[in-house]
Design goal:
The protein is mostly helical and 265 residues long. The protein contains eleven helices and no strands. It has one domain (3-264). It has helices spanning 3-16, 23-33, 41-58, 60-75, 81-110, 114-134, 146-157, 166-176, 181-210, 216-244, 247-264. The longest helix has 30 residues, at 81-110. The chain is globular, with a radius of gyration of 18 Å.
C-alpha cells in the first residue's frame, strides 16, 4: 500500500467506526469507486485493533467499573445496576455474533457491492432520521432492561449489511425505544467493544491461516492513526451530539447514497 492510502484508510476507519455512517462502506468504496487496491486482511486487523484500543481507552473507567461489578455480582449471585448493564451488553452482542457466523459467507459473496452500500446508506439513513424525530428521548442507561438490550442486539445484526452502520442501527433502535441521544450513543459505543474484539480475532485467525508476511510498518501506522482518529471522533461526537442532533449524519448518508447511485448509473 502507498503511504497516503494507509493514512486515508486508517483515518476513515477511525472516524466512521463510531459515527452512524458505516465504516465498512467507506473502506469498500476506495477500491470500488477509486480503483484502489484492496487494503488486505492484515491492514483490516490493524485498524480494528486501533479502534478497539480507542473505545476501551476512552471508556476505561466505565469498562473497569462494569467488569469489576459483573465479576463481583456474578460470584455473589446478584445483579446490580452496573452488572446489569454488563449483562445487557453481553445479551445485545449475541444476535450479531450468531448472525455473523451463519451469514458471513453469504454477505461476503453477494452484498459487498456499491449498489448495496448506496441503497442501505440511504434507507437506514432515513430510518435514523425517523428514530431521532419520533423518539421520546426520556430514558437513560439506568432504565435499560434486558428486553431493550435484546432488541438493540437484533438491530445490530443488520449491520452485517454493508452501508448499514453498526453504531447507526444500534442508536436507531435505542432512540425508538425512548432513550435519550447520549444514552443511545454510549450504549452503542460500549456495545462495540465485544463485537470489534470478536471481528478482530476472526480476522487474525484468517490472517494466521493465510500465513502471509506482514508489513509491520504499515500495520503499526494504520493502528496508530485509527486509534487517534477514533478517540477524537468519540470525544467530539458525544460533545456535540445534543447540540447538533443526528440530522447532519442523515444528510451526509443521503448525499453519499445519491452520489454512489449517480456513479453507478
Amino acid at each position: 500500500m502507498e503511504l497516503w492510502h494507509i493514512v486515508v484508510l486508517a483515518i476513515i476507519q477511525g472516524l466512521t467506526e463510531f459515527l452512524p455512517i458505516s465504516s465498512s462502506a467507506h473502506l469498500i468504496l476506495p477500491s470500488e469507486v477509486l480503483g484502489w487496491p484492496d487494503q488486505g486482511l492484515a491492514f483490516d486487523v490493524a485498524v480494528h485493533v486501533g479502534t478497539l484500543a480507542a473505545v476501551v481507552w476512552y471508556f476505561r473507567k466505565d469498562v473497569g467499573q462494569l467488569s469489576s461489578a459483573w465479576v463481583r455480582d456474578t460470584l455473589n449471585r446478584r445483579v446490580g445496576q452496573d452488572s446489569g448493564l454488563a449483562w445487557a451488553i453481553i445479551a445485545a452482542t449475541i444476535p450479531a455474533g450468531l448472525a455473523g457466523i451463519v451469514f458471513n459467507d453469504l454477505i461476503e459473496a453477494h452484498l459487498r457491492s456499491s449498489l448495496v452500500i448506496a441503497v442501505s446508506t440511504i434507507g437506514f439513513g432515513l430510518v435514523l432520521w425517523w428514530s431521532d424525530a419520533a423518539g421520546r428521548r426520556a430514558r437513560g442507561l439506568g432504565q435499560l432492561a434486558m428486553k431493550d438490550a435484546v432488541i438493540i442486539g437484533l438491530a445490530q445484526a443488520l449491520a452485517l449489511i454493508p452501508g448499514t452502520s453498526r453504531s447507526g442501527i444500534t442508536m436507531t433502535a435505542a432512540l425508538f425505544l425512548g432513550f435519550d441521544r447520549e444514552s443511545a450513543a454510549r450504549f452503542s459505543f460500549l456495545l462495540s467493544i465485544p463485537l470489534i474484539t470478536a471481528a478482530g480475532l476472526l480476522k487474525t485467525l484468517e490472517l494466521i491461516e493465510q500465513g502471509a508476511g506482514a508489513d509491520w510498518a504499515s500495520i503499526g501506522l494504520g493502528a496508530l492513526l485509527s486509534f487517534i482518529s477514533a478517540v477524537v471522533c468519540i470525544h467530539l461526537f458525544l460533545k456535540f451530539l445534543e447540540r447538533l442532533g443526528l440530522m447532519p449524519y442523515v444528510i451526509y448518508r443521503l448525499l453519499l447514497g445519491v452520489l454512489l447511485l449517480f456513479l453507478l448509473w
